[in-house]
Design brief:
The complex is a heterodimer of chains A (208) and B (234). Chain A is mainly alpha-helical and 208 residues long. Chain A has helices spanning 7-14, 30-35, 40-63, 73-95, 97-103, 105-108, 114-124, 129-159, 170-174, 186-207; strands at residues 161-162, 165-166. In chain A, helix 4 crosses helix 5 and helix 7 (114-124) packs antiparallel against helix 8. The longest helix of chain A is centred in the C-terminal third of the chain and has 31 residues, at 129-159.
């Protein structure tokens, strides 16, 4: 057990959460991060889906990495990812239909999410299954955190609600407060994301 | 083993494809009944929304739908009833002049006819349901619209913003002489011959192409139902 959670493995897991975050440091997966964060619920589901898919595609690719013919390795990676994405998409359709409608094409587009291919090619092809699995979970959660932060801010400021529940009392609106319609648009997500990156860099700069 | 030989690569690829195909087929078969049911409930919800019955939870949808929708008929453009049942099972892409689903409904004892409308927005398909009163002018009782992939915050407003849908209530689908479809979605200030005050609804600002799509959809689809609606007007 000690080896499973060795210092290196802990780093493999925690690095993508902060210092090597796929979204705010490597700036990958921006497209979907902007598109699905207008509300918190789809952002959470999207984050979870990507986490599950990165973790398991990393695990599978790592398990078969020694058998993969080098010339078609990208295709093999894509097939594994595509199969997992299709399965997740079918599960979403069966169990959380309204969310799958909200995520629409973006579930399918997880296949082309740079985070996935990047991790498979850079990590899972060279490392063991357990490390790869941790790396996948770490990167997925690193992506999910940013989605949740942006989704939280956008839903709160754009619709005055969290997870569909009104949190701003009517009294606030009576005083003349208005929901910011800009927040529901992807452009505002990009600006918010920029702010997150700014805060993240400034914080890590101080620590150095 | 030589993992870069041609034979190995080809065999590897074939085996992988077969395994993945089986896996996907299996998952799809297992989950199909559940997702079909979800799609059905979603469609019923949309039809109810056009009848201004919104905000019901998924459990209540089926019972309410049974209560409100008296018959799901299949008709053709000439207004002939081709089947008294089975209109609900017609998929959007199978709707054609010979095969038109229509829903006969009763809300609080008053007859309404719900007509599905299908068209194209800016990026993909758009569709909706228009509930019409059984009067001579063809007064709209309610409407619901949805879309595949219109721009979030702009074109997507046709589905998200109830105000857009609610403005249709009380408008009439025919022009003044009652011989053509005139219900339109127009920019403020834009006038089109034959479209009266009672026929026009406001377009979505910043989503001209989606709004035009809704406009064309209404004209194209309602035209096919005109005979039937006229025959059923009291």
């Amino acid at each position: 057990m000690g080896k499973l959670f060795s210092k290196e493995n802990q780093e493999v897991f925690s690095n993508p959460l902060n210092l090597n975050n796929p979204v705010v440091v490597q700036v990958l997966g921006i497209c979907s991060a902007l598109a699905v964060t207008s509300q918190l619920k789809p952002a959470i589901v999207m984050g979870l889906s990507v986490t599950v898919i990165t973790a398991f595609s990393n695990l599978i690719i790592s398990l078969i990495r020694k058998t993969i013919p080098n010339r078609i390795r990208i295709i093999v990676q894509l097939v594994v990812v595509a199969a997992l994405v299709t399965i997740v998409s079918m599960i979403l359709k069966a169990y959380v239909y309204d969310v799958s409608v909200m995520l629409s094409v973006y579930v399918g587009l997880i296949i082309t999410n740079c985070i996935l291919m990047g991790r498979l090619e850079a990590f899972a092809m060279q490392n063991g299954p357990w490390e790869s699995f941790l790396d996948g979970i770490g990167n997925g959660i690193g992506y999910a955190i940013i989605l949740v932060v942006v989704g939280f801010a956008r839903e709160l400021l754009g619709a005055g609600s969290i997870l569909g529940f009104k949190v701003l009392p009517q009294a606030v609106y009576d005083l003349g407060y208005m929901d910011n319609g800009m927040m529901t648009m992807p452009a505002m997500a990009l600006i918010l994301l920029g702010c997150v990156i700014w805060a993240h860099r400034a914080y890590n700069e101080e620590k150095k | 083993m030589n993992t870069s030989s041609n034979t190995y690569t080809v065999v590897y690829a074939s085996v992988m494809v077969v395994i993945v195909a089986f896996l996907l087929a299996f998952t799809s078969t297992v989950l199909k009944p559940k997702s079909d049911y979800n799609e059905k409930v979603d469609k019923q919800k949309q039809i109810l929304a056009s009848l201004n019955i919104r905000d019901i939870d998924n459990e209540g949808v089926e019972a309410k739908f049974k209560e409100v929708v008296v018959a799901d008929m299949v008709i053709d453009t000439l207004g002939n009833v081709k089947a008294e049942k089975g209109g609900f099972d017609i998929k959007k892409k199978d709707i054609n002049p010979e095969n038109l689903p229509v829903y006969m409904c009763k809300v609080n004892g008053v007859d309404k006819i719900v007509v599905p409308v299908v068209g194209k927005g800016l990026w993909g398909g758009i569709w909706g349901y228009v509930a019409v009163e059984t009067d001579k002018m063809g007064t709209v009782y309610g409407a619901y619209f949805s879309h595949e992939s219109e721009t979030a915050g702009l074109g997507a407003i046709i589905a998200e913003y109830e105000g857009f849908q609610k403005q249709f209530a009380g408008k009439t689908i025919y022009n003044e002489s009652g011989d053509a479809i005139a219900l339109s979605v127009l920019k403020k200030g834009k006038n089109v011959d034959g479209v009266g005050v009672n026929n026009r609804c406001d377009a979505v600002t910043g989503a001209t192409l989606t709004s035009n799509g809704v406009n064309d959809m209404l004209h194209d689809s309602l035209k096919k139902y005109m005979k039937f609606l006229k025959n059923n007007a009291k």
